[in-house]
Design brief:
The protein is α/β, with parallel strands linked by helices. The strands form four sheets. Strands 5-2-1-6-7-9-10 form a seven-stranded mixed sheet, with helices on both faces. Strands 12, 13, 14, 15, 16 and 17 form a six-stranded antiparallel sheet that branches. Strands 3-4 form a two-stranded antiparallel ribbon. A hairpin with a 3-residue loop joins strand 14 and strand 15. Helix 1 packs parallel to helix 7 and helix 6 runs antiparallel to helix 8.
């Protein structure tokens, strides 16, 4: 089976690796363009590109595959295409190229959490489980028929980065099982119930800002959901103050008020409080809160914004 694989971030690498190890012929990999990363804006290739080049798999990069990639894909003569966190919408013209169609690896239990950020939103909303869906791609956003689903419990303290890693492993198992079913003609395609659908948006930095009027549980989930990126933040001395990890405390006070500032840094929420564990002030390094307190004199009753 000739396969073209479309993916971009770390999440996409392990499924591709397992497809290759299972003996399937990947004739090309499509990914997004190299992008500047970090303060020095170092031009950095996507993880899928780096992995593919190690295996000498031809790599194609487009800003808009719908415009730039159609003829290249046709020349590869794929029988099946697989997308995994690719980040671009495919046109019907592209979907029609492989005789077996296009299938997508999606990190939620569809029709829940369609869209760009299902892992972030599952944690943000306090879900206790999520999973992987293998689905047949159509022109809608994650609206195609379901081929296979597997559930995964979300651990109470799990960050988005940690859940990404576990879901990537599950995705690599699911795609191999789905490929076997498709290859043997046994795949069953189940329509989604659009009435149950929920949606996610592209994560922007603004959504990670903490509102201390929210309850402690909601803020705690936000901190988990945006670790490692874009990182939940509030304002300290009128500058962004990042919070990587925290713990819910059984204390109360005016929202945003410092309740403890000796060996522990505890901030009141709209309901309950949070003990901050790992933080980073503007221009500083990531550090535990106790180390931060040694270099920054805070007083009980002061406020974070």
């Amino acid at each position: 089976m000739r396969i073209v694989y479309l993916g971009t971030p770390d999440f996409s690498v392990l499924p591709l690796q397992k497809i290759v190890e299972a003996g399937y012929k990947v004739v090309g990999v499509v990914t997004n363009k190299d992008k500047p990363v970090g303060r020095k804006h170092v031009l950095t290739p996507p993880p899928v590109k780096v992995f593919s080049q190690k295996l000498n798999i031809p790599v194609f990069q487009y800003d808009k595959i719908r415009v730039e990639g159609v003829e290249d894909i046709k020349k590869l003569k794929p029988e099946l295409m697989i997308t995994c966190a690719f980040g671009q919408i495919l046109s019907q013209e592209i979907l029609d190229i492989p005789k077996l169609g296009v299938i997508n690896i999606h990190a939620s239990l569809l029709p829940l959490y369609r869209g760009a950020s299902p892992i972030h939103y599952a944690i943000l909303n306090g879900e206790k489980q999520t999973g992987i869906t293998i689905m047949k791609t159509d022109v809608g956003i994650d609206t195609g028929d379901i081929i296979l689903q597997r559930k995964l419990e979300i651990k109470p303290t799990e960050t988005c980065g940690e859940l990404f890693d576990r879901l990537s492993v599950l995705a690599s198992e699911c795609i191999i099982d789905a490929l076997k079913e498709i290859e043997n003609g046994r795949a069953i395609y189940k329509k989604q119930d659009d009435n149950l659908a929920t949606f996610t948006k592209i994560i922007k930095k603004e959504i990670a800002q903490i509102n201390w009027n929210d309850d402690a549980k909601s803020i705690y989930n936000k901190i988990r959901a945006f670790n490692p990126s874009p990182v939940a933040f509030c304002l300290f001395e009128n500058n962004p103050f990042k919070i990587y990890s925290a713990k819910i405390c059984d204390m109360n006070g005016k929202a945003g008020t410092i309740l403890k500032a000796d060996k522990e840094l505890v901030i009141a929420c709209g309901k309950g409080a949070l003990k901050l564990l790992t933080v980073q002030k503007a221009g500083g390094k990531q550090m535990d809160a106790q180390a931060f307190l040694l270099g920054n004199k805070l007083t009980v009753g002061g406020e974070f914004k």
